[in-house]
Automatic annotation (TrEMBL):
Pfam family, one: Sigma54_activat
CDD domains: AAA
The protein's name: Two-component system response regulator FlrC
Keyword check for Kinase: no
Keyword ATP-binding in annotation: yes
SUPFAM superfamilies: Homeodomain-like, P-loop containing nucleoside triphosphate hydrolases
PROSITE patterns: SIGMA54_INTERACT_1, SIGMA54_INTERACT_2, SIGMA54_INTERACT_3, SIGMA54_INTERACT_4
Species per Swiss-Prot/TrEMBL record: Povalibacter uvarum
Protein keywords: ATP-binding, DNA-binding, Nucleotide-binding, Transcription, Transcription regulation
GO terms assigned for molecular function: ATP binding; sequence-specific DNA binding
Amino acid sequence: MDFVAVAPESLRLATLARRVAASDCTVLIAGESGTGKEVLARFIHRSSPRASHPFIAVNCAAIPENMLEAMLFGHERGAFTGAHASHVGKFEQAQNGTLLLDEVTEMPLGLQAKLLRVLQEREVERIGGRAAVALNVRVLATTNRNLRAEVTAGRFREDLYYRLNVFPLSTSPLRDRRDDVLPLAMRLLTSRCRAGERIPALSADAAHLLLTYGWPGNVRELDNVMQRALILCNGAVIEAEHVHLEGAAGLWDPPPAQRVEAVMPESVPMSAAAIAARAASSALSQSLSVAERDLILDALRLDNGNRQAVAKRLGISARTLRYKLAKLRESGVEV
């Protein structure tokens, strides 16, 4: 999935990511589980001069400790029991490209020392091998933990921490970037629909539920919710009853500054409740507009600019599509 950046925090992160992508320095991406750390890593790779070369991701938490070393560095035939053939490791597979070490804090201390040597020497020696292989690989790493605290606790090597933490980036939880919720929801719906299949729209009530939920599981939870909604939806619109959330405990309470933001001149008397309702309505309208824009642009890309195919995919008339494209042009969007 493409990196979605509509909220101010995400736009700032995308700007930093593009800047660091032009370099070859190591990047450490921190953030809660499900916030899109790997998506950001892929965005950095696609924005870099290495984009035409491999992007190899290794989930350090998902591979057993006794297999991770051979997976990363490779091995020669006969290096250990069961090694019936030589195997190229992930570092060599990523040659001239990018290697992502996902959840690097799950790597055992003994292997951390070997990883540090590879990063320092920029060469790797397969298990059971005698010759070192020179590497030209850009390394990215992610973690959902406080890596500085892991170092203090003795669970992560301090020298490796400094080797990885050359350029730190942080992905914010979804509850802190509410403007990303609807564009992400529509992007996820688009990715789950088969080619040529109509992409359902979100009703205002359904959108309101998505915007006011706290998303403890972040984008991964949003993806699950949209998959369920897609299955339950029988028509062209996802309604509130199709959106199944984890319960009221997850509902998001806007900060006071957002709840009482003035949207009318001070001379017009309004209750705090009315101001809050007007502010929420304005935020919802803006987020829906952004989601509609992204949905139209995605459809144009998927159908190679074929207006008739785009209108069919979106379930609208060609005349309505022309009107919406004209409005996008007026707002400065090139279509």
